[in-house]
Design goal:
Blueprint: E1 3-6, H1 10-29, H2 36-59, H3 74-85, H4 97-118, H5 136-170, H6 175-181, E2 183-186, H7 199-223
Antiparallel strand pairs: 1-2
């Protein structure tokens, strides 16, 4: 019988909820002149989180690693989506094929949105920390791409929310609770090492998270005097 098992480590869960808060704030603050500095700061921090998540995808516990949910072939992703629509539960305790697609898509879009924001400038109220190092054409391209990417992030997040609600209420899978407790039901029995709740993973994540998020802001915000 399937039973709850440790799946999501502290840093995956923390990152998930920070991303939720960050994206909500970015969507609210994007058009507010008085919040432009806060919007830019959160954008830099989101960029740091993307760097952390990429590194954690190779150094974190089993279910955080990209190797546990490699990019699926189109047929595999479509088959996974069909199973979800039929309310058929996936056997894996980690990301399903279609869930993995969503993770890759969000990481890519958030990263590109943060990067284009840092490379943008309106020559009046805001100039991103990367703008001085780029050509005028590159800065203009970044400025035009940034709002498009931001809307793509919003659309993807809305789709993700609907998918989570479908799993939660139609399929009776406790995904929301799982992203709080770290426990998720799965039929596979995997003796994963290191354990996602271990002190080693907590400490390793703290070091990498601090370097990526703190270092990104330190480099762009402090060293460059932005």
């Amino acid at each position: 019988m399937s039973s709850p098992q440790p799946v999501w480590d502290f840093w995956i869960r923390l990152g998930h909820w920070l991303i939720v808060a960050g994206i909500i704030f970015q969507q609210i603050s994007g058009e507010e002149i008085e919040l432009v500095n806060a919007h830019a700061t959160v954008g830099v921090l989101l960029g740091g989180w993307v760097l952390f998540r990429v590194i954690w995808g190779f150094t974190g516990p089993y279910y955080a690693r990209f190797s546990s949910f490699p990019p699926p072939a189109p047929k595999t992703a479509v088959a996974s989506l069909k199973r979800v629509l039929k309310k058929e539960t996936e056997e894996t305790a980690g990301h399903s094929a279609i869930g993995g697609v969503a993770v890759y898509l969000l990481i890519t879009l958030i990263g590109l949105t943060a990067l284009t924001g840092m490379a943008s400038s309106d020559d009046i109220f805001f100039s991103g920390p990367l703008a001085p190092f780029l050509s005028a054409d590159a800065v203009d391209l970044a400025g035009r791409a940034h709002p498009i990417l931001s809307k793509m992030v919003l659309i993807t997040v809305i789709m993700h929310v609907f998918a989570v609600l479908w799993h939660q209420f139609a399929m009776k899978e406790r995904l929301i609770q799982g992203m709080i407790t770290g426990l998720k039901i799965g039929s596979e029995k995997l003796s994963a090492h290191p354990h996602p709740f271990s002190k080693m993973i907590l400490l390793r994540g703290f070091v990498i998270f601090s370097i990526c998020v703190g270092g990104t802001y330190g480099l762009l915000g402090i060293y460059l005097g932005w």
